[in-house]
Amino acid sequence: MKVLIAYYHFGETPKVAQRFGKLFLANGINSETVLIEDTKNTPLKKQFKLENKLEISIQKNWDEYDYFIIGSPVTSFSSAPVVNQFLKSLPDLKEKKVILFATGIGLPGNTIKKLTGILSTKNAELIDSEIFSSIFPFDEKKLKEVDAYFERIKDKFKKN
Ligand SMILES: Cc1cc2nc3c(=O)[nH]c(=O)nc-3n(C[C@H](O)[C@H](O)[C@H](O)COP(=O)(O)O)c2cc1C
């Protein structure tokens, strides 16, 4: 059983993604963490008008993974365009399980709804979603919320 943790961007979201990685490791679950990028590393602010033109650069053997953890910052009350485009670029995910997470400052808007909508075209099973919010940089105390969240969901991962 293998988990792919795919996230964007450079500050708070990777802290949560890496925390998930540590928690999987501590629980004997094989996971891999990857930054979602487009071939031109388009800055976030320029992505909004270019979403459908972004060429996702991650190349993976998607069949290898049973679970996908997808993380995005909340950007303008929604998910980051490159994360949307990443989800759209994936093949059919039948029999795969997905957890969505987002980081933000407390105004999540339609972030999870947007990602869920795209995911629904991929036939994956969405098993959970969560938003981690703070107006401050995520410190150890904040990351304990990720630990607590993981405790709540860890039984959803089959260890085989
Ligand atoms: C352009 C931009 C738009 C944002 N819009 C929102 C928003 O609508 N709601 C919210 O809660 N946070 C918003 N934020 C804050 C980010 O979601 C938050 O700081 C997030 O944790 C950043 O993650 P990152 O450091 O991994 O990019 C915005 C940040 C940026 C840069």
What report would you give on this structure?
The structure is a single chain. The chain is α/β, with parallel strands linked by helices. It has a single domain, classed as Rossmann fold (3-Layer(aba) Sandwich). Helix content is 32%, strand content 25%. The protein has five helices and six strands, in the order E-H-E-H-E-E-H-E-H-E-H. Strands 1, 2, 3, 4, 5 and 6 form a six-stranded mixed beta sheet that branches. Helix 1 (12-26) links the parallel strand 1 (2-7) and strand 2. Helix 1 (12-26) packs across helix 5 (140-153) and helix 3 packs parallel to helix 4 (111-119). The N and C termini lie close together (5 Å). The mean pLDDT is 96. Bound molecules: flavin mononucleotide.
The low-confidence parts are: none
Query: End-to-end distance, in Å?
Result: 5 Å
Shape: globular
**Percentage beta strand:** 25-35%
| Strand segment tally | 6
- The CATH class turns out to be Alpha Beta
SS content category: alpha/beta
**Could you estimate the helical fraction of the residues in percent?**
25-40%
Mean pLDDT: 96
CATH names the topology as Rossmann fold
Overall number of structural domains: 1
The number of helical runs is 5
